[in-house]
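Chain X:
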Amino acid sequence: MERKMLFAASTWSHIQNFHLPYLRHFQGLGWRVHAACGDAPASAPYTERVLEVPFTKSMGSPRNFRAAALLRELIREEGYELISVHTSLAAFFTRLALLGMERRPLVVNTVHGYLFDGQTPLPKRRLLLAAEQWMAPVTDLVLTMNRWDLQTAQRYRLGANVVHIPGIGVDFAGFSRAASGSRERLREALGIPQGAFVLLYAAEFSKRKSQEVLIRAMRRLPEQAVLVLTGDGALCEQCRQMARQFGLDRRVLFPGYVRNMPEWCGMADAAVSGSRSEGLPFHIMEAMYAGLPIVASDVKGTSDLLSDHEAGLLYPYGDDAACAAQIQRLMDSDSLRRQLGARAREHVEQYSLERVLPVVLGLYDGLLLEQTVRQRR
């Protein structure tokens, strides 16, 4: 019997950056793997078909409801056995397409961080929670990555089965292949003076990632501190303007989107994060593997990684003074930097792709097996 599955996410880059090992696995087992996303490439690895759907970040946009209609037509046409949904918006509208179907595929919702935690304004929090509750009847398995999301999904019964996973797995192989000498080369290319203490934050420029908190913190730090903000996004230019306004042009750097994170981690003295909310952040886990000491906002996901293992310094979200104080602690203490870096490196192995992939795939297998048993009764 032919087996088909669909991966759905807001963008192809999300699937490409985080889920290709899963597509490869299912294709290797003989599944016909399709993908649906908002920026479909002409061709994509490990997929037979990629459908471009008009997802847009505005939840109430007619484009998203048109995307749901296209997905409903696709699902009926292809007869998928399994659908794997990712990113909050795509997960909602893909499942919306399934409501009312007499026979629907199994659905796995991988939660990369619910966006309705305690810091979300109450009206928005209620709306987003209600949306997840509405989709619960067509969600067979919920995979969560941090304690808050797990407890929330269990409390509100946001799927038939809710399970905690240690992320989706980070491929650390590239860190062992990082080119020697890249530290000096990158610093020279960026114009970073000798003796600088380099802070790295690798993230999309968005309101949720809160780069502006780190830029404000830089005003409180000595000239020796240099902040490197890699990535691109809607708020990049706004952050550039803020840095110029504060006279930080030479101390806050914007190299744009970069690919070789092992080399960039090797260039830094510490990693930082200003994020308002996370699932289980890749940039933190990569920094941990590189042995960098970390200063980050005390939010779900990040605190699971750092606080549980005493592997980094946390500060209240949005508090640039507290952020600067924690960074200053690192700058003042070689022993603290070594201790935190070593502890982070020791504990991050449990989140590696080679350990996590079998765990997650085992949950998919269990769900498919349960369905087979039910059908035979």
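Chain Y:
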Amino acid sequence: MEFITYEVEDMVGIITINRPKALNALNSTVLDELDATLDQVDLDAVRVLILTGAGEKSFVAGADIGEMSSLTKEEGEAFGKKGNDVFRKLETFPIPVIAAINGFALGGGCEISMSCDIRICSDNAVFGQPEVGLGITPGFGGTQRLARIVGVGKAKEMIYGARNIKADEAYRIGLVNNVYTQEELMPAAKKLAATIAKNAPIAVRNCKKAINEGLQVDMDQAIVIEEKLFGDCFETEDQKAGMGNFLEKDKSKKLKVVPFKNR
């Protein structure tokens, strides 16, 4: 592919948006290649994805303004749908996705990061939805996901004012989980991914599904979603092995004879 690289390390897939001369801006080709990359992920071999950008300046600086500038109303709507379809695929992807945000995450960059399950960033990261300064609205889910993540008031402040925020504020308002130096970012992302990958894969997938789907409905419906996914786990080998191992360890502890002098 021209703008996307994909590699697998120990059950972790790493997707890199590789267009550094354009600060990894999203055009139609990048979106198409990202869509195709997600389709080729081997879900039997990969348990977690990491999404990042090439270089040290930018995760994704936004959608490609050069491509957008001449769009008609209908073409603008179609471009928005293309981005939303890919981002929604990322958001609902069966396995967890970690965004390793290494610099600018503006417009479409902020939006694609919010489509990931977990966001961590470098200390030079900058987040924002600057679209109103260009005469448009956020078009790849920014008006919806930002309000859900940081709250309606803060989202409106950022979007209406085209206000960018730095890494420390992004952490304070809950937009990112942690902040690291540039050198620490990818090792931290890989460590987190490895921690997730060692857990029962079907259980992790069901947790993602339960959280994502449950947030879209009221609590009574959400609990039913959880109950069904909880029940599904009891048909898996992971559940049998996991609980069996726990009971064996517990049994060993109970049978252990403590010397009289230590009682």
